[in-house]
Amino acid sequence: MGKRKRPGHRGKGEATMAKKIDRYLAEGGVYQRGQKKIEELTAVFELDLPFPDHFAGGTRNRTLVAQKAAEGGWLDPSELPDITTDDRLKLFIKTNDPTLEQLEYFGPNQYPRWLFDKHFADPSQRVLLCSDCAPEWLAMRFPDVIPLRMQRKLLASWDEAIAVGLRFPKTEAQRSSTPALHLGVWNLYSNTPYITADSRQKIVPRKRTSRGIQLARSKEKRVIARLDVFLGIIKSGVVPKLKNLVEWDAGEGARIRHRMHQRVRATLTREFRRRPNLDFGGLFFTVAVKEGSSEVLHVDWNDNLHTYAIIFCVGDYTGGEFCIPQIGYRIPLRPGAVLAVRTRLLAHCTHVGSGRRLVFTCFTDSTLLEQTITGDFAFL
Questions:
Q1: Which of 133, 259, 359, 379 places its Cα 20 to 30 Å from the Cα of 219?
Q2: How confident is the model over 160-177, as pLDDT tens digits?
Q3: Cβ proximity of 274 and 156 under 8 Å
Q4: What CATH number does residue 51 fall under?
Q5: Is residue 188 part of a domain?
Q6: Is residue 228 situated within a structural domain?
Q7: Strands annotated E in 265-308
Q8: Is the CB of residue 96 less than 8 Å from the CB of residue 348?
Q9: Using one digit for the tens of pLDDT, what is the confidence trace for 37-78?
Q10: DSSP strand E in the chain: where?
Q11: Residue 337 falls within a domain, yes or no?
């Protein structure tokens, strides 16, 4: 017995189709509906608080954070409320603009005043380093940037590097009870950029014999090979997604990063040829990687006043909210989300949670930025 034929039908009448098209156009079409959806998933918090200039001066010491917290009556980080409980929201957070008195800490365009006093003693040289360079937001959160597959690859590669003997530096007690690796390039306490010690993974032989030295070099090569694979996943799988978040750029920010990248590549041409995965393309130059939380309230003194640290986490954990007592809130940060925050201005810590949490903090040290600008007057 053959299949029964579908009964004939004439479809929607012209009047019905016309009504449907009119309704579609009234709703704004695909673009307007998409725009409306984006707006529904974006939250802007313009907090009625003074601009947080507590750490804008040149003073840097470990006790200053505790002193400012006591003077300001900040809530204990564990008591801070979540700024939102909706993990789907894209967040933009700011306070009131700095006053004229507060800007005295910074100098033109929020560059630190001491930088001008040190490098531009001649008033005629105190030009604007760049126009409109200070970021508009204190913090931004972008959900679901790093896909689950990439998170798993990062964790697996990290475990493989640990398995072959990845070496960690001493714990920084003023930040956390667990150590962090600083991988990539920085310019701290030097006149030129250089590869970080954690990236080089130098192993001192137990015995100064030819056999002992050979074993140490062999282990060093294995560790570096695994570490470069791990860095390659960050470079190829994570950095492009971060670059797609156009909100990083504030005015001339991209131009400054380009100049820094040119300088670093010119200085470290040979090193980058041997280990290309140490070059993150200029969006940032160092990535700090650690397991656990930075549970001690601190300021990232080596960051620049008006650049973002880019933070993301992978793993299976609960808690781990990013606490900022100066604004009175903490920001939930789920696996795969990205947080951009001005860590040189804002004292911060992480709420201790449970589970396994691998944290990546991508940044550019202030010395690299300042030496690039002040050493290249053609750029000005």
A1: 359
A2: 999 999 999 998 888 888
A3: no
A4: 3.60.130
A5: yes
A6: yes
A7: 286-291
A8: no
A9: 667 889 999 999 999 988 877 667 778 898 999 998 999 998
A10: 42-46, 90-94, 139-142, 181-186, 194-195, 286-291, 309-318, 322-324, 329-331, 338-341, 349-350, 354-363
A11: yes
